[in-house]
Amino acid sequence: MDGFRQDLRFAFRSLRRRPGFTLVAVLTIAIGIGANSAIFSVVDAVLIEPIPVHEPSRLLVPDVVAPTGFSISLSIPNLVDWRDRNRTFASFASSSGRSRTLTGGDRAEVVRTRWILGDFFETLGVSPAQGRVIPADETFAGAPAVAVITHGFWQRHFGGERALGETLLLDDQPFTVVGVMPPSFRFPDANTEIYLPMGFYQAQLCWDQRGCSQGAFGIGRLRDGVTIEAAQQDLDRIVREIEETEGQRVARPVLEPLVDYYVGDIRRNLWLMMGAVGFVLLIACANVASLTLARGEARRREVALRSSLGAGRGRVMRQFLTESMVLAALGGVVGLGVAWLGIRALVPVVADSLPSALTARIGLDPTVLIFTAVATLVAGVVFGIAPTLRASRTDLVGELKEGSRGGGSGRNRNALRSALVVAEVALSLVLLIGAGLMIQSIRQLRHVDKGFAEDNLFTAEVPLPRARYDGRDAAWPFFRELHRRVAALPGVERASLTQILPLEGSSWEQGIYPEGVEYTQDNVQSVLYYMVTPEHFDVFQIPLLAGRGFEAQDRDGGDRVAIIDETMAERFWPGESAIGRRVTFESTTDDAGETERIFRTVVGVVKNVRHYELENAARITIYVPFEQTNGNWTGTLKLVAATSGDPTLLTDAVRRELSALDPEVPLAEVQTMETVVDQAMSGPRALGTLLGVFAAVALGLSAIGLFGLMSYIVAQSFREIGIRMALGASAGRVVTTISGQGLRLAALGVGLGLAAAVVFTRLLGTVLYEVDPMHLGTFAAFSLFLLAVAGAAAWIPARRATRIDPGIVLRQD
């Protein structure tokens, strides 16, 4: 222990003697460790502990597949059957996210609620911080008007004061608060603030219809020791039994781990990020190792002297390794500050591409601190091992000879540092090429034909309280008047209403039978279904390709009509006109909860619109006029206004018009359509941004590493350069010779980097959009760019070498 303390004291004393070296080394390693810790904080929140519930590995989500083959949400009869007849689940529940209007305060506001059915909280394995949860028997028909609130809502609405027993007025319905959840509980997203029993809203739901979707999300907890395969077989058995009993095909669940459902494709992107930022740490370690090797060369005589005084090889190695670990520890401490700053910069970049509940958990928690400590230890060993081994091989006799210039060839001593620089250049090129490909991919996405124009569009959500505006007949006069008022505002060119915005991340699917297709369950076609006002196509500038748009006569009492997109027209009536064709809607629920079959005539064909996501081709879409819908909507619509100027300036005017109609109806989710499109690109943009940042850092570190090596070579070759210049070597020849050494190293690094980039870009290819992972132009451009940077880094010390005075060198000899 005394020896270790002595080594520590000597290490700190040695580092204090060279503050410049110490500062550069600590900052370099801090950048590498800090960047890794920042990215790992996202990995920790998303992949390691993504859901703050009990044993999330036992939670499964059923992706409900209709007999027609398309996904639907979970119906109440299916949930009840799966819950009551299974042999593999400990509990089963479902929930559906709905926006409600909270009144009773200074101003009406929209809150995100979760309607729950079954053992919701028991399935998740969570307990309230105050009060109680809503048990399963209070979530079905006849449910009481009770509510459980989140910790955040408790703080925001009640100021952290007593909430139990208090009343919340939601859509003019009073609910009694019976529980408050702990701060860690944010499920399924951070926007959810209130949990309500689904059974309270039985009258608004198709409660007993097995094929009716409620927008519900199911979740089940496996019994101990049960596998996902066994659970799937169990639910398949239940489906077969139901089909035998009812004599028709029913929806089939396909089970998926909740964590996979929650995280989705984010996992792939995050591991790519961890690999990229790992390259940055390796480059930082190589840089510090190179610096330490150079410093070790200057200390060879010191090491030889200590060895001659009795210090064994092990003691010398321990001393050098201790110094490296002290440097790493200092870098780790500073790296925590870098990580903290990095997280603050990182969260806004990744927020739109992550579930909100996960974004809220990103930070320097204990797991991230442990990772930082391990990364610090590994980094210390990685950059410390080469200098330690080099110091242990010092030529004792050669170093102590009077006038000795070293115990070995300078070229041999520089070989390891040269190899480190080559590795830095190679890793930097991999990141540069990856960033370049992602930038091209983002550019392709930005210029993809969306089918609509997003410029100068104001959008907002208008949710009506169901208690006062129940059903289309009650709500539509309000929306018609709001639409008229907004369209008349100064600066507004056109206005429209729709239930879902393009690229909003949600969709409404409907089963249809196009004319000419036999009406059987196997032939039903799934399409995206949009209810719009006649101005919708003008507002979004969606081109009309055939027929006409919606007109004033397209309302109740008139012929039921529809407009379809070009994909639907080409698929079902290729080479023929779709105008006048009839489309049968599989089933539509009316205000009374009954089911009727609807026939519509196609009156127009419009251009394809990418409603759901930019990366994939547009899905078949059918549009119907609002005034011919029969109540299968929730009372919440999107208001869209095309403006002649900045759409954000319209907010106050729209809010005044809305308040004049009903002061208790809030204006929610105010944003421009450009923002919606931008959010649709959030995943690729975040990946491209981070790759670009890491590539820039790696390039800078590599350039510094090459500059440092060439500067050291010049200093080491001071005498040799002076003699050459005395013998007639020109300054240009000296610059060419020294720069050539640096460029040769860079060229070797580029060659290795190109080989490594082939592997890396194949992995990256899964996230690229219409960009060849082997795009030769990108490979060539960044290779030349890196060589140019390397040339500049080598030229500066080479130019400095020409200032050596040969006379001084000769006099020293």
What's the topology here?
Layout: H1 2-17, H2 19-48, E1 59-65, E2 71-72, H3 76-85, E3 89-103, E4 109-118, H4 120-124, E5 130-131, E6 146-149, H5 151-158, E7 167-170, E8 173-180, E9 192-197, E10 217-222, H6 228-246, E11 252-257, H7 258-263, H8 266-298, H9 300-308, H10 313-350, H11 356-359, H12 366-392, H13 396-400, H14 410-446, E12 457-463, H15 472-487, E13 492-498, E14 509-514, E15 525-532, H16 536-539, E16 544-547, E17 561-565, H17 566-572, E18 582-589, E19 595-606, E20 621-625, E21 636-643, H18 651-661, E22 668-672, H19 673-680, H20 682-716, H21 718-726, H22 731-764, H23 776-801, H24 806-812
Parallel strand pairs: 4-9, 6-8, 15-20, 17-19
Antiparallel strand pairs: 1-2, 1-10, 1-11, 3-4, 3-7, 3-10, 5-8, 6-9, 7-8, 12-21, 12-22, 13-21, 14-15, 14-18, 16-19, 17-20, 18-19
Describe this structure in words.
Mean pLDDT is 83; it is low at 395-400, 402-409 and 588-594. Helix 15 crosses helix 18. With 813 residues, this protein is α+β, with helices and mostly antiparallel strands. A hairpin with a 2-residue loop joins strand 7 (167-170) and strand 8 (173-180). The strands form three sheets. It has a six-stranded mixed beta barrel. It starts with a helix and ends with a helix. The relative contact order is 0.12. It has 24 helices and 22 strands. The chain has three domains: 1-52 and 269-408, no CATH class; 67-250, no CATH class; 457-679, no CATH class.
